[in-house]
Design goal:
This protein has about 40 residues and is of the alpha+beta class. The chain is built from two helices and two strands. The longest helix is centred in the N-terminal third of the chain and has 8 residues.
Length: about 40
Amino acid sequence: MVFPKLQQVLDTQPDIELAVLVGSQAEGCVRPESDWNITI
């Protein structure tokens, strides 16, 4: 799964070596109240 806007933002941060999307966004079970859980 690719999130172009998220990728674009992360690409501007040279100190970030790895970012992992977890939770409902990553699992594809998004609800209106879902947030973004990113492990950096």
